[in-house]
Design goal:
By secondary structure, the protein is mainly alpha-helical. It has helices spanning 3-41, 46-66, 70-75, 77-90, 116-134, 140-159, 163-179, 184-204, 206-216, 227-239, 264-296, 301-325, 343-374, and strands spanning 97-100, 103-108, 113-114. It has one domain (3-363). It has 13 helices and three strands, in the order H-H-H-H-E-E-E-H-H-H-H-H-H-H-H-H. A hairpin with a 2-residue loop joins strand 1 (97-100) and strand 2. Mean pLDDT is 89; it is low at 368-376.
Length: 376
């Protein structure tokens, strides 16, 4: 089986699995939110209808992006990251920025809100890949310019504050550095410095220390900082082996905060049980497997690294979210990709899938050109 056939095969599997996860996410948003939606908005369809719109709109954007040349997103990643940085600045402007839970993470766009941090995950990923791949070719001035662009966006995420998104961006930067041609000695130095700085940022704010203490012993404050994790555990316990059945979760009935968002995995555990959780985790494992196999089937080195990086960042966030919901990691405020409610998250992830298939399209284009050039 040749490379193009492998690309087609892995691409189809990857697309099918992604579609299943997105569709399942829409269903779970309705299941986990209909009571809360009815109580707050007077209709059980508020979150469900919006999630369907985001999914359809995101699929349309992904299709359009898949028809573009991936080199566009790669070469203009510097400018793209500047745009995202500008949007992050807008979150701090009174009247335009939306403050929720003490954080400036959203922009009021009239019909809803936009969270630029969700798009920053991919803009910093693209830019860092370009930066590390081109590092040896850049002069000192351009190296400083690229580094400043990346770190400025990271700084804005810290100031919002949005440590969860900052952490994902930092992991993405580290991963692109690792798979690039960047000097290994400099990589280890950068990784060490980044780890120390991330640790200092983590303990710099009292609320983050409080979350860390709640993670270590949630029962020390079961009605306060440990409440969410304990309710999540109760949800998984209620689900047992086979689950209570879709729509029958009790924890979503105003017991579990963020049931349709960050902690939707707990509702999945309660309604589908241990078997459902294993099957759901298996979907993301398959997503990772076929995503990486798809990347390895690509001949273009940059396309291969771009697909690998995108799949990595999505799967790492999924793992972190599941770890938080299971009480294995401190709470970070990260949603479950493709599944949690949220337009910005779903749109950014689907656009990223579009970029993956723009890389796949390049493989087909190159293959189609070979016979022509071979005749010259």
């Amino acid at each position: 089986m040749n490379s193009l056939e492998n690309t087609d095969r892995f691409g189809k599997f990857f697309l099918i699995i992604t579609s299943i996860i997105v569709a399942f996410g829409v269903v779970m948003v309705y299941s986990s939110s209909y009571m809360f939606s009815k109580e707050v908005y007077g209709t059980s369809l508020h979150f469900f209808s919006r999630q369907i719109f985001f999914a359809l709109f995101g699929i349309g954007l992904a299709f359009i992006v898949s028809k573009t040349k991936y080199q566009f997103w790669y070469k203009f990643s510097f400018h793209l990251n500047i745009v995202i940085g500008f949007l992050l600045i807008l979150t701090f402007i009174p009247g335009l920025g939306v403050i929720a839970k003490g954080a400036n993470r959203w922009i009021n766009i009239g019909v809803g809100s936009l969270q630029p941090g969700e798009f920053a995950k991919y803009s910093t990923l693209m830019l860092s890949l370009f930066f590390f791949e081109s590092y040896e070719k850049l002069d000192l001035k351009n190296r400083l310019k690229f580094a400043a662009n990346i770190f400025f966006v990271l700084l804005l995420l810290i100031l919002q504050p949005d440590f969860g998104t900052f952490f994902i961006c930092a992991l993405g930067i580290g991963f692109t550095c690792f798979i690039s041609n960047f000097n290994r000695k400099y990589f280890y130095i950068l990784a060490s410095v980044g780890t120390v700085l991330s640790g200092l940022i983590l303990i710099a704010q009292p609320y983050r220390v409080k979350r860390l203490m709640a993670f270590l012993d949630p029962w020390a404050n079961p009605r306060g900082s440990g409440f969410q994790v304990i309710q999540s555990w109760i949800g998984f316990a209620n689900g047992g082996f086979f689950g209570k059945g879709i729509g029958n979760s009790l924890e979503k009935l105003f017991f579990l905060p963020e049931a349709h968002n960050d902690f939707i995995f707990s509702v999945i555990g309660e309604e589908f049980g241990f078997l459902g959780v294993i099957a759901f985790v298996g979907l993301f494992m398959a997503f990772t497997h076929f995503g990486f196999r798809l990347a390895l089937s690509l001949k273009d080195v940059i396309a291969r690294k771009m697909v690998t990086s995108i799949v990595f960042i999505i799967c790492v966030q999924a793992c972190l979210n599941m770890g938080v919901v299971l009480g294995l990691l401190p709470t970070k405020g990260l949603n479950l990709p493709f599944v949690s409610y949220g337009g910005s998250s779903l749109l950014s992830n689907l656009i990223a899938i579009g970029v993956i298939f723009s890389c796949v399209s390049r493989q087909h284009t190159d293959n189609a050109q070979k016979p022509f050039f071979s005749q010259q």
